Amino acid sequence: MIPPKESGLSTATTANNTSSSANNGAESAARPTRRKTSHLKDVPPTLELRESLRSRCAEVAKRIDRSVPLTKDQMEQIARRFLEEADLPEGYLGWMMVMISSEFWKDQLASVPPERRLFLLPHCLKHAEGCPAEYDQFGMNCKECGACSIADFRSIAEEMGYRVLVAEGSPVVLKIIIGGYVDAVVGVACLNVLEKAIDKVLLAGIPCMAVPLLSSDCRNTKVDESWVEQMIRTPYVPATQQTKSYVHLMRAASELFAADAMNELAPRVRDQSPLGGDAVTVDSIAKLDTIAATEHIAYDFLARGGKHSRPFITLAAYDAMMGGDCTSEKGAEAVGALPVTVRRAAMSIETFHKASLVHDDIEDDDAFRYGQPAVHHRFGLPTAINVGDYLIGLGYRLLSRRDADDSISSEARVDVLDALATAHTRLAEGQGAELLWRDSKSRQLSPLDALKVYALKTSPAFEAALFSGIRLAGDAEAYRKPIRDFSRNLGVAFQILNDIGDWTGDENNKLAAGGDLFGGRPTILWALALESLQGDERDLLINLVENPDAYSDTERLAIATRLYHSAGVFDTAMQLVDKHQARAEMVADELQPESLRRLLYFLVDTVLERPEVPTPNVISLSSVPVNSLPVV
């Protein structure tokens, strides 16, 4: 047992003071500097110690303001203070953060009936290699072999009405929630998976409790079984929503692209054939009138796949400037009252985005999109180009429509139209610069030039989505520059992370690792490698692109990976991400109202998801000082 010290009270008081400052909006609540915590995943070794720590976490959680979700930074701050005052190892930090978060959400989760809860379980606890269960895209179908307790937990949960998912950090969790099937999550997993799988769920303000496994590996381990059963049996206690949540706005953004919503906001004029589960093909549209076919292909692609993050940003920015009712206990009702013009504007931004994806897939000759063959692979280049053009026209049509009872002024519409047109042209400039570099004979590229391309390609969509929501809510002149600065830094950091993620592949889009290298696209990783490598190593890297036939794909990928590690580009790129993230947060720190500032913090935390950096196979003998990193 740990001694009863004042750590719980003082830590909770600190958390309350931090929350109160943010909520009052009187001062900018600057975010604390982040520290790496991925290595701090130790589990307290005895049940007695774990029980004692959990009890103290419950005491701390009772004193924390519940009006807004507890951020990862706040959890870390509270957990660190607790461990320091209790004289416990820093390695327990990750475990303590899970405990604090679970206790924070316990009462809110109890207000959700069991049939609206999701129970997330790991793979076999006892002997993963010998587990007889079958797996599919939705997780594991447990065979109830008796080797571990998963089947017992599952039976209890199903008897109570839970939806149960056996998967390891599956991205389908958030999709299930946004789809409207569940409103809360309880989970069992190792600390590594909990950090990745549930972070976004918590940030969105979705009640979530978890019991960590007793080792860092999610397989062949144990769990405090009495804790799991106690968590599952959390009694239903009806109550109103206490903590602000983005879930209603996330669902609203996704529902914009359901058949009924599209028929309301952007009704088809040529044909009303239903959109099927599989992507349309030449054969499936054979019976359609040829004039109607373009509309049908475009609407099918618009309704298919994607995270709908841009429409969400527009809806959330509008709501933030109008008082934040959509994140309150009245969220479902408030979302239903969003003006049709705001919903059409949100839909138009996604329509422009989808148009750019059709064209981008053509320019890069990508084979898949959303797990389906790309449009140009299904219908050919001319038809795909035309479908992209149709979507651009549809996007502007959505902005020009005006209903008789529309409350949005003509001036606001013009400003939003101008913002989207500007974003569109800047995107084309950035994409054009990338294509010209790809097709040129010179492979030279400076880090600053790479970052300029990123600022043009990725940032305008964030800026247009944010500005549109703010402008439709009222005067936005004072927000133009800060939103542009925030979006530029967020977009650049996002694109750098996307480049790093390219080296691990993308199963959702059936992309293999190294796609940017094989496609000859300019990236910050390439620029940093050229800047750092010397002599034969630099010549070898350039030769990989200039003479691709001299190597197999496997050889090119292996050599490039070795050279990138030799140049330390992954570490340098992550330093750049940190630098641009810090700059984005500095902009957010100064903005009012608090609801808008909280949205910007949420975007930083959810958009800038760190991928797994490839394990170095060469030790870098030098690194680039952070102060010398280029910034656009």
UniProtKB/TrEMBL annotation:
Region listing for Disordered, in residue ranges: 1-43
Keywords from the named record: Magnesium, Metal-binding, Transferase
GO BP: any one term: isoprenoid biosynthetic process
Requisite cofactors: Mg(2+)
Skewed-composition ranges (Low complexity): 7-30
InterPro entries in alphabetical order: DUF116, Isoprenoid_synthase_dom_sf, Polyprenyl_synt
The keyword Magnesium belongs to this UniProt entry's keyword annotation: yes
GO molecular function (one): metal ion binding
Source domain of life: Bacteria
Similarity section: Belongs to the FPP/GGPP synthase family.
Name under which the protein is recorded: Polyprenyl synthetase
Source taxonomy: Bacteria, Pseudomonadati, Planctomycetota, Planctomycetia, Pirellulales
